[in-house]
Write a structure and sequence with these properties.
The protein is about 40% helix and about 15% strand. With about 375 residues, the protein is of the alpha/beta class. The protein has a seven-stranded mixed beta sheet with strand order 2-8-7-6-5-3-4, sandwiched between helices. Strand 6, helix 8 and strand 7 form a beta-alpha-beta unit. Helix 2 packs across helix 11, helix 4 packs across helix 10 and helix 13 runs parallel beside helix 15. It is globular. It starts with 16 loop residues before the first helix and ends with a helix. About 45% of the residues are buried.
């Protein structure tokens, strides 16, 4: 066969760290606190609703933007929580997960040569997606306390900036944006035509009585924003790959042009099930307390170890500094932790373009059963 030379569009991208660590966890029989997915069952009611939808014959393509009943219940939920009425007809689109929504939003607005500001450590799909559409990722770091550094972001804005990407609660940092941060963002974008991509998939995982500072709450930001959400994070169904995007009519028109040629439409029976399930607000309102309890259980255990936990204000991720245990780089230490001590975590250097020198931090996922967390803590305390 002829030797074909295929120039890669993503030459720096290998297998994602999540795949690598989950595979390592399986090989070593380590407790997997690396990849962000729950290890407990989903609500039986939800399973029954999907089965009913399938039996009722809802197995063919959904309308491109999502079934009307689901878009309506999404709009009602958003109005209830954030006080703004998105038009389900023209401003709400159901997607095949949050990642697809991000890919589609960037695909809709990023032209070759456009700059997109990404705040590191950043979820790993952001930069490659920008590059695939010919854009240029501009990386800015969170502060050393893992909180938003508005001055650094403002300094990165140029006439070529097309999009600012923000994420609250933040994966992997576990910190949140607050009202003051959102107001600073509104200030720096005022008078520009820079768009905002606000990744809010962990909207219901905000702890300690804080409220989620959604871009939707700020009319100036909302008008220029794609706001992205995920059903998987809320209802513990990450494998269903279901999410949604909200945007003003003009922005959503562009989004749907890409969406219809990307997936066309998302899973039909699951949409019918979610439309029914979401009618009861308790189903998402209980989520913060549910996860806060897990965070606290994990945190108490972690404090008894030689790891130093950082502040976890939201998400289901807990960062921990291991400087007191080892001077190894985080990728080396994470592998040893899985092999020798039986706990898989994610090194956070992989979420940076240029990781800060000497930073020794791992990310643990606490979306796990109590038994899983207790077993992991026991192992971490032996180190």
């Amino acid at each position: 066969s002829p030797c074909m030379s295929i120039p890669s569009k993503l030459p720096h991208v290998g297998t994602t760290i999540f795949t690598v660590m989950s595979k390592l966890a399986q090989e070593c029989g380590a407790i997997n606190l690396s990849q962000g997915f729950p290890d407990f069952p989903i609500d039986e009611n939800l399973i029954e609703l999907v089965e009913q939808a399938m039996r009722a014959g809802h197995n063919q393509y959904a309308p491109m933007a999502g079934i009307p009943a689901l878009r309506e219940v999404i709009a009602a939920k958003v109005q209830r929580l954030y006080g703004h009425a998105y038009d389900p007809e023209t401003e709400v689109t159901v997607t095949a997960g949050g990642t697809q929504a991000i890919f589609t939003a960037l695909g809709a607005v990023v032209h070759p040569g456009d700059e997109v500001i990404i705040v590191d450590p950043a979820y790993d799909c952001y930069a490659p997606t920008v590059e695939l559409f010919g854009g240029r990722p501009v990386h800015v770091r969170l502060g050393s306390d893992m909180r938003f550094d508005a001055d650094a972001v403002k300094a990165a804005i140029t006439p070529r900036t097309r999009v600012l990407m923000i994420n609250t609660p933040h994966n992997p940092a576990g910190t949140i944006l607050r009202d003051a941060d959102m107001r600073r963002i509104a200030d720096m974008l005022r008078g520009t035509d820079i768009l905002l991509l606000s990744d809010e998939v962990y909207e219901h995982l905000v702890f300690d009585g804080e409220s989620h500072a959604s871009a939707i709450n700020y009319p100036e930001l909302r008008d220029r924003a794609y706001v992205i959400f995920s059903f998987g994070k809320v209802f513990h169904t990450t494998g269903w790959k279901m999410g949604y995007a909200l945007a003003s009519r003009a922005l959503m028109k562009e989004f749907r042009k890409v969406h219809q040629f990307n997936v066309f439409s998302a899973n039909t029976p699951v949409q019918h099930a979610l439309a029914e399930y979401m009618k009861d607000p308790l189903r998402y309102e209980q989520v913060p307390a549910f996860y806060e309890e897990k965070r606290d259980r994990f945190l108490v255990g972690l404090r008894a170890s030689r790891f130093e936990p950082l502040a976890c204000e939201g998400s289901y991720f807990q960062l921990a500094d291991y400087s007191r245990i080892s001077e190894e780089p985080d990728t080396v230490f994470a592998e040893r932790l899985a092999r020798e001590f039986g706990v898989a975590a994610i090194p956070i250097s992989v979420f940076y373009k240029e990781p800060p020198a000497g930073q020794r931090i791992l990310r643990f996922c606490f979306a796990k059963q109590e038994e899983t967390l207790d077993n992991a803590i026991e192992k971490l305390c032996e180190i």
